[in-house]
Every structure is written in C-alpha cells, then in structure tokens.
Design brief:
There is one protein chain. By secondary structure, the chain is α/β, with parallel strands linked by helices. It has 3 domains: 2-144 and 269-342, FAD/NAD(P)-binding domain; 152-266, FAD/NAD(P)-binding domain (3-Layer(bba) Sandwich), CATH 3.50.50.60; 346-387, no CATH class. 31% of the residues lie in helices and 23% in strands. It has 10 helices and 20 strands. It has helices at 14-25, 40-44, 47-65, 80-105, 180-191, 211-223, 277-280, 316-331, 361-366, 382-387, and strands spanning 2-4, 7-10, 30-34, 109-113, 116-120, 123-126, 129-132, 136-138, 142-144, 172-176, 195-199, 227-229, 232-240, 243-250, 253-259, 261-264, 268-270, 303-305, 346-348, 354-356. It has a 5-stranded parallel beta sheet, covered by helices on one side. Strands 1-7-6-5 form a 4-stranded mixed beta sheet. The chain has a 4-stranded parallel beta sheet with strand order 12-11-10-16. A hairpin with a 5-residue loop joins strand 19 and strand 20.
Length: 388
C-alpha cells in the first residue's frame, strides 16, 4: 500500500518533534516514523534520565557533606533500585506530557511505528507500507560511539545508555573519554560512592570550552577524589574475576588500570545504518554523518536532515533549530534560511554547572579577532561562599 504525506520525518525525538510542530503550525500534514520509544534519545536515554540521576547524586553529595556545615544528616548509601524507579517515572512523565499528549492534540501530526528504509529517493518502506512524499526530514539521531580496542567486545562495558539502567552502582569505574558525557557521568557516579577514573586521550578536558574554565573544573573533580589521567591511549581490555583490566600507555609509559566496570564516553555515531541512504542517493562523510548544506539540504533533492545524524554540535537545542529551519525551507524555498551555530548555547550539567555561547577567546584570536576577556573566579562571588 502506498501512502502520501506533505512531510515524512524519520525519528520522533527532540529534533523530529521540533520539525513536526513547525510543519503542523503551517498547516502541513506530517507523518513521523519511529521504530523505538517516542521521544528519542533525549527523553529515553540521554538528557532526562541522566539529569534526573545527576540531580539525585547532588543530593547524596550534599548529605555526605552535611556534618561539615553543622547538619546532622545520615549520609547512607544510595538506594540504586529506588533511584532507577525515580528515573523511570521522570522519563515516563516527560514522554507522556511533552510528546504523547502533544501528538494526541495535534491533528496534523501522526506517528507510524516501524523501521523506515528508503527504496528510492521518494519512497520509504515501513513494514508493508510504502510512504511517498516530496519532502523527507531525516532526524533519526545517533547512539554512543564505540572504539576498536582489542578485547573490548569481551567486556560488558557501559555506555551513556546502559549506565542509565544499572541494578546497582559499581564500586569502581574507568571512563574512557574526557567530554561532556564523561564528566557528567563521572561526577555522578563518584557522588553515588563509586571510585572513578577518567582517561582522556588528549591533554585537556572539554576542548570546546575555555581552558581556564576546564582546568578549574578539573581541580574540582580532583577535590572529589576523581582521578584524571591525560594522554591515555588504551591498547587492550581484559576481564578478570574482579572486573576489567586496561592496558594503557600514559605519556609514553605503560600502565595497568583495574576497576569493576568500564564505560565508554567517546562521542556519538549517526543512526544511519540500514535506512537505505544509498538507495536514496544521500551522501555521508567519513564518520557516517549525513552531509547537509546551511539550508539543511542533503545531496538528494527533496531530502533534508537535522540533528545528531548530521554531526556536531550534537546537542538538543541545535537539532531543534536545524529541524525548524529545514521545514521552513521545505515549505518556503523562495525565502530559504540558513543555520548558524555560532550563537548556539551549550551547557554542561556538572556541579558547578557551566555553559558557553559563541567561540572561545583562543578561537577568536586564531581568526584574527581583537578580543577583550573578563574572568571572574567563582571564589569571588559571595553566594559561592554561602553554598560552601
């Protein structure tokens, strides 16, 4: 059976929903195709579950510090089972209120369950149905990237997804990666009582942020007994009765690291496998991300893409903006808009939280821009002293 729609969107996450709502607001009939949970990564495996647990980890940390500030709080161990229940409740609530109820109230948006795969540039097969349209939006997101390390496949390693479903917190954890997810997860696990070691291949954390900021945060992590190891090149992973063993070269010297569990936090891979990009004529880059121009058009006329599937900046606000621009350009090609991420905000949900917008001072100087910088240390802010 062949069905025609104004716009067909592959995905149902933050990016897909932003595009669908933009289209519906202009009277277009939209069909979203989703093979997994409504809401995509952010609601089900990313932002919402992780930030829920991060918030509870801060409560746990505050309880342990209570006696320091004259509070008689019993700093017991976290109840992992109950924490996971709280996380699941938060996910279910957000999925229902921010996604399902919106779908139920929006007559111009429908969702079709199943795996979508192109069979031509104008046809998407979903089960027994063939969807045809002049406008496709690919917003199928991404998933945690892995590494080609000998022995890794033999270890039940964690990712940012599986870490959200643990029956109990490990006593010790090695995290490969020094980006946003590694730091958020590392501090969270540490505050739940896990001994955490973070291994970064480079010489610093969070390359997208100002060096002074990331260096200062590194000191905060060290103060919370989180080990930071830089210039770490993991060569091999082994299993033993106590957990995992990493054979690593650190600054040119061989080191053996042990822990109960291992976590990879090394970025995002695009969810482009088995969706028929070749049949659709859609080009990808060396990393598998879909190539788009500043109008979010792919190499195939009539197919746009947005969000994590197109590569960095790999954050929800950017994906939502890209989808809105893509849909406007579909419906109003005579007044095409461009996406500009230079002013896209990026936040890191650690404690203390920090964020950025625009480029760093170093990046600006490399572009020949005359820069004036002001730096205010948090220790100079009265509220910081009040909060301890």
């Amino acid at each position: 059976m062949s069905v025609t729609h104004d716009i067909v969107i592959l995905g149902s996450g933050t990016t897909a929903f932003a595009g669908a709502l933009q289209a519906a607001s202009e009277g277009a009939k939209v069909l979203m195709v989703e093979q997994s949970h409504l809401g995509g990564t952010c609601v089900n495996w990313g932002c919402i579950p992780s930030k829920t647990l991060i918030d509870k980890a801060q409560d746990c940390f505050a309880a342990r510090r209570g006696p320091t500030f004259g509070l008689n709080l019993e700093a017991g161990l976290p109840d992992c089972r109950r924490l996971m229940e709280v996380k699941r409740e938060a996910v279910a609530t957000l999925r229902r209120e921010h996604y399902q109820e919106v779908l139920d109230s929006e007559p111009n948006i429908r969702i079709l369950r199943g795996h979508g795969r192109f069979i031509s540039p104008r046809e998407l097969r979903v089960g027994a149905q063939t969807l045809t349209t002049e406008r496709f939006l690919l917003a199928c997101g991404g998933y945690p990237r892995t590494l080609d390390i000998p022995g890794l496949a033999e270890v039940n390693y964690l990712t940012s997804y599986s870490a959200m479903h643990l029956p109990c917190f490990p006593e010790s954890l090695l995290i490969i990666g020094g980006g946003v997810i590694a730091l958020e997860m590392g501090q969270m696990f540490s505050r739940f009582g896990t001994r955490v070691t973070i291994l970064e291949r480079g010489q610093r954390l969070l390359k997208e942020f100002d060096t002074r900021l990331t260096d200062l945060f590194g000191e905060i992590l060290a103060g919370e007994n989180i080990d930071l190891i830089f210039e770490a090149d993991t060569r091999r992973v082994l299993r033993d009765d106590d957990g995992v063993i990493l054979e690593t070269v650190v600054g040119g010297e061989e080191r053996i690291l042990r822990a109960e569990r291992l976590m990879l936090a090394v970025g995002t891979a695009p969810a482009t496998e088995d969706i028929g990009l070749e049949e659709a004529g859609v080009d990808t880059d060396a990393g598998g991300f879909i190539k788009v121009d500043r109008h979010m058009r792919t190499s195939t006329e009539g197919i746009w893409a947005a969000g994590d599937v197109t590569g960095p900046p790999l954050i929800a606000p950017a994906g939502a903006r890209e989808a809105e621009v893509a849909v406007r350009n579909m419906l109003h090609p005579e007044a095409a808009r461009e996406v500009d991420h230079r002013n896209t905000p990026m936040g890191v949900f650690v404690d203390p939280e920090f964020a950025s917008i625009g480029i760093t001072g170093d990046a600006a100087r490399e572009q020949g821009i005359d820069v004036v910088e002001t730096f205010l240390d948090l220790s100079e802010v009265a509220k910081a002293h009040v909060m301890g």
